[in-house]
Amino acid sequence: MKNVAILGGGNLGTALAQGLARTEEAASKYKVTVTRRTPDHIRHLEDKGITVTDDNTEAVKGADLLIIAVQPAQIEGLIEEIKPAIDPQKHIIASTMAGVKSEDIAKLTGSGVRILRVMPNTAAAINQAMTCIEKTPHKEAEKEVIALFDTLGETLVINSELMEASTVLGACGIAFFLRYIRAASQGGIEVGFHAEEAQLIASQTALGASALLLESNSHPEQEIDKVTTPKGCTIAGLNEMEHNGLSSALIKGIKLSCDMIENIR
Questions:
Q1: Which domain holds residue 257?
Q2: How many distinct structural domains can be found in the chain?
Q3: CB 134 within 8 A of CB 163
Q4: CA-to-CA distance for 256 and 47, rounded, in angstroms?
Q5: Which helix (H) or strand (E) segment is 164 a member of?
Q6: Is 147 found in the same domain as 59?
Q7: pTM, to two decimals
Q8: Which of 19, 123, 141, 255 is most buried, most CB within 10 Å of its CB?
Q9: Are residues 129 and 189 in the same domain?
């Protein structure tokens, strides 16, 4: 069993811990410790067999794999705190921080520890995450990190220069898709459904649309064509949305989010 320390029990760190404790497959492979300055805020994780502590150094000493899930501005202080406990022969560091390169962390540790970036999303809590993993020369470490995140959903190994883009499309993307579902639910209320009914229909329909693409490996337009008929209500609605900038607004939002990552730290 691998010992995993998640340093930073915020929303993402908590989601990762929950996912690793949620299935028998993950729970049988990984023993998880989560750290937070105020551990009482995540004390509920103990009910799932997860260790909760405010001692980063002790968590590192007992771990094989370190997942850094703090805010980028906190990285220097965190590394300074745990640096004496890092063992380059033992530890692998997987960083979830947007805008912080592996080279930046390597300079701070100064120890030659194996480091790679990962970008999961909060759907890890239910083992439905999309995680992009940085391609690295440390192939054995890469395999171990892939194996862990495979238990939390889908993984994709990408080049380092795409990590910022993956942050926007995958991690920020959770919020983008949720905003669409919220808007669709509001539209459903306007045409006659109660709020909970509209949200159920919108959510399950979004899930179904995603499953269609993942199962069939088809292009979105192929599936769209199957539900649009001449002079029909679907094409009328799609065209109205496009006239009001649906696709353009999404693309612009993704590009702007990506541009802003460079100024995070």
A1: 167-261
A2: 2
A3: yes
A4: 40
A5: helix 163-166
A6: yes
A7: 0.93
A8: 19
A9: no
